[in-house]
Write a structure and sequence with these properties.
about 200 residues, mainly beta, 28 strands, eight-stranded parallel sheet
Length: about 200
């Protein structure tokens, strides 16, 4: 299904793909079966979106009003740059305002969750089951191991490396290696483990 006003360039759309209204899919992209691209989202050139991934689902935004959780409209979109890969059953939430952004050459594995207004730089690697909370900014060349979780509104510097299963609860300077829950510098973590 291709929605009203959507633009699909010379791309491959396999079975059961849904492209929302006013969305764009740039040339050279390949959308595998069951992919959903939400309204107004923009898929860059030569992207590969694997089976079942959802681009542009609502951001998780609620306000507690009159003793109940009221949904806050999420009116932004998702924009992916060129040469982005997104693994099977991964989800990238649309921004509350503005855009959730995935930078050029970034590769996202299966079952990864990217929350609203996250900004990911160029040539990053996010391994399976990583979760990134809202409005976190990830620099260029960052590697995040499987099942790592990042709290919201953090800044992860260029070239940082986060070990699998790490819980990142504060910003990480460029080039630092982090491990553990809550995460600490990897050298310190290794010394602590030796002493146990």
């Amino acid at each position: 299904v291709v929605g009203e006003g959507a633009v699909v360039e010379a791309a491959v759309l396999e079975s059961h793909v849904c492209v929302g209204k006013s969305a764009t899919v740039a040339a050279g992209s390949w959308l595998f079966p069951g992919v959903v691209v939400g309204d107004y989202c923009e898929i860059g050139p030569r992207n590969r979106l694997h089976a079942g991934c959802v681009i542009g689902s609502d951001g998780y935004g609620y306000e507690f009003v009159e003793n109940q959780h009221q949904r806050v409209p999420q009116v932004g979109n998702v924009v992916t740059a060129a040469d982005v890969d997104i693994g099977a059953n991964s989800t990238i939430d649309r921004a509350r305002f503005g855009s959730t952004f995935i930078g050029e050459g970034t590769k996202i594995d299966n079952q990864v969750q990217i929350a609203h207004n996250v900004q990911i730089g160029k040539h990053c690697l996010l391994v399976a089951q990583v979760g990134v909370s809202g409005s976190t900014e990830i620099g260029t060349g960052v590697v995040i191991g499987g099942q790592a979780g990042l709290a919201g509104h953090l800044k992860i510097g260029d070239g940082a490396m986060i070990a699998g299963g790490a819980a990142i609860v504060k910003s990480v300077p460029a080039g630092l290696k982090m491990r553990g829950s809550p995460a600490v510098e990897m050298a310190l973590y290794n010394r602590i483990i030796v002493l146990q």
